[in-house]
Structure formats: structure tokens, C-alpha cells
Write a structure and sequence with these properties.
By secondary structure, this protein is an alpha+beta fold. The protein has 21 helices and 26 strands.
Length: 666
């Protein structure tokens, strides 16, 4: 037999060479694997990190919005959102069908929506509890929280307003990413939203971020909270009163502003209709002709500049003043005034005398005075959208007719915030303060610009009191028992956009005023746009003012300054047994309120240790009730007028649960 071919020298050499080559390759692979696994390869390390590491954006918690007492008006709550990877979903028909079923659409429609190039997309943001339960029932979310590959639930924060629609137009709203859209949310967005940061995170096998690298340096900062000057409790009450007045007067809209006269804090700002999503605060964004509420400002300025004194007289032209062939007349045809004082001009709201006063002031002094009071300029409140209004720029171009109409609040445009600020200057003794919607900080320096002499402010206040207390005053319905009110009604015509002339059927009714002599001076503006029926401010805006002031003095416990004629007790108009139809049973609740000085004088001395029934003859029922309040009796009243007879009579020892009957003169 011959030698096998592989045993030949040449073949053995070849085989040895092949074995050597494979041996070298094996050794090389061993060295390479050792290098990769033990030492390091930057490129492969980078690829590995890309598979299991990612950068995620950490969003901070948005700051809270709180009222002046710390009550939260806007907070954050954790919520769930559905997200996923289109790349992975499109690779799995089962996941695609399951997701489509959960979202209430077809797989084909969903497939068209998905971009295969994207690794992330949102499917549903801020899922409600009911919606999450639906996702569980469809099988998209397993009971243990697991989900198909390419889908995951992301925890987010959503904005919640615990007081519902209270101050909603003022607070504003945010979008789904909690970025401010309007109101305070937009104005203070940079402060509220905080600072986001990009951090390193590790992904699981499904591509979901699971762990954040503790060594990652994060500069994320939560948003700062904002404290408003608004009192949420008062705001709620004011909004209720405003809505009731709008419904009662059938007005298109309305507004109320409550301002601290000394420091400019806005304690309540209500507008109606009010809803979240309204993109403006009309108190600063909308202008109007103020009408007769301008007259006291004109008078205060004229007194301040020495043009007139409060008791000086001026001719009323018997109701008609002709200027440039145009007739200025009084609001009521029967009003025909001759010589009347400046104080009387405010009480009866004379257009003619106000026009004469403006003409006597002259254009230069009139414009200068209005600008000094902040009219025709932004107030500096800071919120976006505030307008300056309009005031003639140069005195030399003003015609006599324009100047005359400025005297009673026409031919100019102001904002409600400007007007309440100007009245606050009368209320606080002559200082113009900057209004603010933010709570003043302790020891904050408040800029107070002197614009009226103390005497001018006092005289203007005296004239304003005549509006509510004077015999012919137009603001009687603004009264609140126990308080002396200085204020002014205004019923201004509005321009018809079609004819560009003053409308005879559309008006803005307003009342601006303040209680006199209180320790905490408060200025309040009420405004109703286009009230139907009886539209005069004295019948519409003035009663609303009274409602609001009652809420203000109750909320801030502002003591009365005048004699009380309305009992601070709970009345139950239920007829008693065997009582006349006009009888009224009044249960006097227990209270620590002190007996008024007038009642003490009328009832002599009340001894609580040995209670003796005092004499209440000659008093009003209200005065008698206040005097008897410490004994907690049940009081029954018959008739009307002053008390003429009482049972039990004076001198009788008072027993617990005393029944007192008061008989009044018919």
C-alpha cells in the first residue's frame, strides 16, 4: 500500500500551519475577550450605557398660591399618565391591539398615529381614577402594575384648585405641563415653576426609567410659593353677593374690588361672569367712563389747589348749561338748581355744577390734578395686560365742551383699579398708594405719594357723606347700620359701537366709597354693566356696596362707629302661640359683646350677679335687645315704634330662660 496523502511531509506541514493559524486566532480571541471583560473598551462601554442608561428631565414641584392667611388656592397632586415607545409597540401586534382597545380606537387608526422613529410619546395625560380602572379592566395594566413591553405609567403633578371657581379669573390656570396660561399663574410663572434639571437614569429591559443615579448632580429646584393679598373667605362672600346682584339687576357683568386704603392690598377682587380660562382681569384691562364718581375727585382737587372751598356756591343754571351749542343737563329733568354749595353738588350729583367747576379749574389744572390722582396711567399693580386708560395729553387742545364733560366723568377713560386707588387717597388722608395683589411683607416700605392736603381730603369726605346721609343723597342704599359711609354713585352712559354715540339704554352703574372713622380704612368699588330695568347706581350698585361692606366689617371685625339700630342677633319670624300676626319672636343668642354705652345709660346699671329687669321704656326694640343680651332671654315683640310697655316690669329679679314681651306704639 502506498503512503496516505496526509502523511506526506508536505501535507503535514500544511496541517501544522493551519493548526498554528487557528491556534493564533484562538489566542487572539482569548486576549481580546480578556481585554474587553477585564480591562476596558470605551466604545463598547458607551454602547452598553446607551442600552441601559438614559437622560431624563426632572420637573420640580410647582409653587403654591396662597391667600393672605396661608389658605392654599392652588396646589399640586400626583397623577398618572400613559406613555410608551412607538418603536416597540409597532413591533408587537398584541400590544398594538391591546392599546387600541384600551383607547377606544382601531389598531389600524392607532398604527397611523404612531411614528416608528420615535422612542417616546404620550398617549394620555393626567388619568382619572375611573379611567385607570378602565385600563386595568382592559388588561393594559396588570393587577401587579406590570404593562406590555413599550408601555409604562409615568407619575406627574397636576394643578388643583381646592376652592373651585373662587377667584378663578384672578388665579388663572396652567396647561397640561403645569405652565401658566393666565392670571397669577402666568404672571408669576417663572417664580412658581421652579427649575428643571437633566439627570442620569437606568432603564429596565422594557426601556422604562427605573433608578436615578445618586451620583448625578441635579440642580432641580422646586418652585416658590406666592402669597396673595386676597382673603379667600371674603372673596367667596363677595363673589356670592356680586352674582346675586347681577341676577337681580339682569346685568351683563359686574365687578367688586375691596382695597386696604393705607397699604394698597387688594383684599378681594371679584368679577362675574367668572370662570377659569378667562384670560384677563377686567379691573385693570378694561376701561370705562366713570360718570358721576369723577365729581368728588374733581372737587377734592379744586379744594386742594385753592380754587374753591367745600361750602362755596356755584350757579346750577336751573338744570341746563349750553356750551358750544350743546346742552348739558341734569340726570333728572325736574332737577333745576340755582346757587348751591360744592357739598350740595356732590349730594345731589349735579352735572351742570360739576361742569362749571371743571371750567373754573381750567384745562391745565384739571389734567394735572387727574394725573396726580393716578388717572390715565397704569397703577403699577404688575399684572400683565394693564392699560393706562385715556386722559387728554395737552391742555391747550381741550375744547370747553370736553373740559365741561370731564367734570362729570365723560370724555375720559379710566380703569376700576385707578378709580378705587384715587378714592383710597381721600380715605387715607391724601396719599396715593400702589395697589398690590401680593401680601405685603413685614416691615415692607410702602410708597405713599402725597397728592391731597389733609384738609382737602377731609372736606371731600364730608361731601361724600352727604351722598349717603343727606336728604337728597343718591346713595342711601349703600348704608350699613353702625357705620358712616362716604361714597358716590355713578350712572354713566356707554358708547354704542354701532352709532359711536352715547347710548340711551346702556349704562354702567357704580358706587365707590369707604366707612369713615374706622381704624382699618377700607375702600370698596362696586360696578354693574348694563343693568336692566331700574339702572340707576343708587338702586343697583349702592345696595351691592352695602352687602359687601357688611361682609368686610364682619370678616375683619371692624368696630362700629355709629349708633346701632339693627340687632346683632338671630331673628326667627315665626308667630308665637296666641300672638298677633305681626308678632316677631327673637331669640337672643349668648354673646360676649359689650352692652353699648347708649344702652347702659338708658337701662341704668345691669348687675349680672343679681340680675334685675331694667326699664327699657322709650327705647327702640334693638336697643332693648342689646341691653338684655347678657341674660339670654326670649323676646317677643308686638307692634311698631318705641317701647311703651314691658313684661316683666323693671325691678323684677330675672330668672334663667326669661320670657320678655315688649309692646310698641302702633
Amino acid at each position: 500500500m502506498g503512503t496516505a496523502f496526509y502523511q506526506t511531509p508536505s501535507m503535514r506541514m500544511r496541517l501544522s500551519l493551519v493548526i498554528s493559524v487557528f491556534g493564533l486566532i484562538s489566542v487572539g480571541m482569548l486576549v481580546r475577550s480578556t481585554w474587553l471583560q477585564i480591562i476596558h473598551d470605551p466604545k463598547l462601554s458607551t454602547l452598553a450605557r446607551r442600552q441601559f442608561e438614559s437622560k431624563i428631565l426632572m420637573k420640580p414641584r410647582r409653587g403654591l398660591i396662597m391667600d393672605r392667611t396661608g389658605e392654599p388656592l392652588a396646589i399640586n397632586l400626583e397623577t398618572s399618565s400613559l406613555a410608551g415607545s412607538p418603536q416597540k409597540i409597532l413591533k408587537s401586534q398584541s400590544t398594538l391591539h391591546l392599546l387600541a382597545h384600551a383607547m377606544g380606537t382601531s389598531p389600524q387608526a392607532l398604527k397611523k398615529r404612531l411614528d416608528s422613529k420615535k422612542a417616546f410619546t404620550w398617549f394620555e395625560r393626567h388619568i382619572s381614577d375611573d379611567r385607570m380602572e378602565h385600563l386595568r379592566k382592559t388588561g393594559l395594566v396588570h393587577p401587579n402594575g406590570d404593562m406590555p413591553e413599550g408601555l409604562w405609567i409615568v407619575k406627574e403633578m397636576k394643578r388643583v384648585y381646592p376652592h373651585g371657581e373662587v377667584a378663578s379669573s384672578l388665579i388663572g390656570s396652567v396647561n397640561v405641563d403645569t405652565e401658566g396660561l393666565e392670571g397669577i399663574e402666568l404672571w408669576k410663572n417663572s417664580m412658581l415653576r421652579g427649575k428643571s434639571a437633566s439627570v442620569d437614569a437606568f432603564k429596565d429591559a422594557l426601556g422604562r426609567p427605573t433608578l436615578i443615579d445618586s451620583n448625578s448632580q441635579t440642580k432641580m429646584q422646586d418652585g416658590e410659593s406666592v402669597s396673595l393679598s386676597i382673603d379667600s373667605s371674603l372673596q367667596y362672600s363677595v363673589e356670592e353677593a356680586l352674582n346675586e346682584s347681577i341676577e337681580h339687576t339682569q346685568s351683563d357683568s359686574g365687578m367688586v374690588i375691596v382695597m386696604d386704603s393705607n397699604n394698597g392690598e387688594i383684599l378681594a377682587l371679584a368679577q362675574a361672569p367668572s370662570r377659569r380660562g378667562v384670560k384677563k382681569v377686567t379691573a385693570i384691562t378694561d376701561g370705562y367712563e366713570p360718570g358721576s364718581t369723577m365729581k368728588p375727585l374733581m372737587l377734592a382737587s379744586a379744594i386742594n389747589k385753592g380754587v374753591v372751598k367745600v361750602n362755596d356756591q356755584m350757579f346750577g343754571h336751573y338744570g341746563k348749561l349750553v356750551i358750544q351749542k350743546r346742552t348739558i343737563s341734569e340726570a333728572e329733568a325736574h332737577e333745576k338748581f340755582g346757587m348751591i354749595t360744592m357739598k350740595k353738588m356732590i349730594e345731589v350729583s349735579s352735572n351742570v355744577v360739576a361742569a362749571e367747576l371743571a371750567l373754573k379749574m381750567g384745562a391745565e389744572r384739571t389734567i394735572a390734578s387727574m394725573k396726580e390722582l393716578g388717572l390715565g396711567a397704569r397703577t403699577g399693580i404688575g399684572m400683565p395686560g394693564e392699560i393706562a386708560g385715556w386722559m387728554p395729553a395737552q391742555a391747550k387742545n381741550i375744547k370747553p365742551l370736553t373740559l365741561a364733560t370731564m367734570g362729570f366723568g365723560q370724555s375720559v377713560m379710566v380703569t376700576p383699579m385707578q378709580m378705587i386707588r384715587a378714592y383710597a387717597a381721600i380715605s387715607n388722608g391724601g396719599y396715593l398708594v400702589e395697589p398690590t395683589l401680593l401680601k405685603r411683607k413685614d416691615k415692607e416700605i410702602i410708597k405713599r405719594i402725597p397728592v391731597l392736603k389733609a384738609g382737602a381730603a377731609k372736606d371731600a369726605t364730608e361731601a361724600l357723606v352727604g351722598v349717603t346721609e343727606g336728604e337728597k343723597g343718591t346713595g342711601h342704599k349703600a348704608r350699613v347700620e353702625g357705620y358712616l359711609i362716604a361714597g358716590k354713585t355713578g350712572t354713566a352712559q356707554t358708547v354704542d359701537p354701532k352709532t359711536r354715540k352715547y347710548s340711551t339704554s346702556r349704562h354702567i352703574a357704580s358706587f365707590i366709597g369707604f366707612p369713615v372713622g374706622v381704624k382699618q380704612p377700607i375702600t370698596i368699588l362696586t360696578l354693574l354693566d348694563h343693568p336692566r330695568g331700574v339702572y340707576y347706581a343708587g338702586e343697583t350698585a349702592a345696595p351691592l356696596y352695602s352687602k359687601v361692606l357688611k361682609q368686610v366689617v364682619s370678616r375683619f371685625s371692624i368696630p362700629t362707629t355709629e349708633k346701632i339700630h339693627i340687632p346683632l342677633v338671630e331673628t326667627t319670624p315665626t308667630p308665637a302661640h296666641n300672638s298677633p300676626v305681626d308678632a316677631q319672636v327673637i331669640k337672643v343668642a349668648q354673646s360676649s359683646a359689650e352692652i353699648t354705652e347708649q344702652s347702659i345709660e338708658s337701662t341704668k346699671e345691669v348687675n349680672l350677679d343679681h340680675p334685675i329687669m331694667p326699664s327699657v321704656l322709650g327705647l327702640t326694640p334693638q336697643e332693648a335687645i342689646r341691653a338684655l343680651k347678657p341674660f339670654m332671654p326670649q323676646v317677643q315683640i308686638h307692634g311698631f315704634g318705641l317701647i311703651r310697655h314691658q313684661t316683666p316690669e323693671s325691678g323684677v329679679v330675672i330668672s334663667p330662660r326669661l320670657n320678655v314681651t315688649l309692646f310698641l306704639e302702633e
